[in-house]
C-alpha cells in the first residue's frame, strides 16, 4: 500500500451548533483517564464543535475485566470435556450485553486466544495499547466534552446508547463529521454492538453516502501485515452492516427488549429525561427514546461501499498510509457465522492457521496453548 495524503476534513460551521448531551459509561471514562496518563496527552485539545458527553455512574464492570491471567486452575483436558453441561460462551460471558464487533474480530484473529481470554481473563494492557486508546480519545475530544450523571437501571444504560446515537446523527447531518458513534444490530440471531471511529458526510452532494473511517496507530513506522489489515477490514465491514441495517429500519425493538430483559415503559432517570428535553426530543420512557432513535436512523444515508482504514505513527501521529477497500457482503456473512459458531460452542475453538503462527509470539497464553508457538515465520509487526 503506497502512502497517500489524508483526505480533507468536511467543513464545519463557524458558529457552534447547540447539540444535545451524549452519554458514555463510567468504565469508558476510566479508560480515557488512564490513557491520558499513560500517553501524557493534553487534556484540552481545540474543539471543532462542542458536544457534551455525559458519563453515567453506577455501571458494573464487564465480566471479561478480571485482571491478570491466572494459570492455577488450568485443566489441560479438551474443551468439550471441561465445559460439559455448561452453557455457551455467549450465555456465560455476553448474555447481558450481546457481542461486540471487537468480539467478532478477536475470533477471526485467533479463536483459541479468545477462548483463553474468556476463561482466564485478559492480560495486562501494553503501553502501545494505551497510546492507541489515548489517540482515539484525543480525536474524539476534538469534537466532544464530558460531564457525569448517575445511572440507575439497565433501561438507563440502553437509553444512553440511543441518546448517543441521536447526538452523533445530528452532528453528522449538521457538520458532516462525527466520531465514536455507537451502533447496534441483530445479526445471525445475535445482538451485536459497536462504536464507529469516524463518519464523514458530504454537505453539498445531492446523492450522499456516509463514509466510514477507522484510524489505527502503529508502534513501528510502517504499514501492517495482510492478516492485520484483514482483521481491520472485517471490523469496518461489521460497522457498515450495522449502520445500513439501522438506516434501512431493520431494528427489531421488541426483540431487543425481550433479549436484554428491559422494560420499554420504564420511566427513565430524571437526568436522562432532562437531557432529552434540552435536546428537543423529550422522552419519559425507553420506548419514547427508541422512537426518536429510529426516526434519526431514517434521516441518514447508507454507508459507502468503499471503506477506509487509516494508519498513523504513534510517535508523531504522521500518516503512514491508507487502505481503502470494498465491502464484501458474502465474506462478511461467512466470518460472522463462523464467529457465532464459536460463541455458541457449536464446535471446538480453532487455532490460528499455520502460515500465521507468528501471532503466537505476541500471545500471552502460550503457557496453556498446545499449538507450536515458535514458528519459523518472522513477525511482520
Oligomer: single chain
Cα shape: globular
Q: In CATH terms, what is the fold-level topology of the domain at 84-125 and 152-350?
A: Lambda Exonuclease, Chain A
CATH architecture of the domain at 84-125 and 152-350: Alpha-Beta Complex
The proportion of residues forming helix, as a percent range, comes to 25-40%
Low-confidence stretches: 1-50, 57-85, 373-379
How would you sum up the major sheet? Answer: 6 strands, mixed
CATH C-level label of the domain at 84-125 and 152-350: Alpha Beta
Number of helices: 12
Account of the 3D structure:
The chain has a domain at 84-125 and 152-350: Alpha-Beta Complex (Lambda Exonuclease, Chain A), CATH 3.90.320. Helix content is 38%, strand content 17%. It is built from 12 helices and 9 strands. It has helices spanning 26-39, 79-82, 89-93, 101-109, 111-120, 127-141, 154-175, 226-247, 253-259, 270-279, 286-298, 329-343; strands at 22-25, 52-57, 99-100, 145-150, 177-187, 190-200, 211-218, 306-313, 319-326. Strands 3, 5, 6, 7, 8 and 9 form a 6-stranded mixed beta sheet that branches. Strands 1-2-4 form a 3-stranded parallel beta sheet. The longest helix has 22 residues, at 154-175. It is globular, with a radius of gyration of 21 Å.
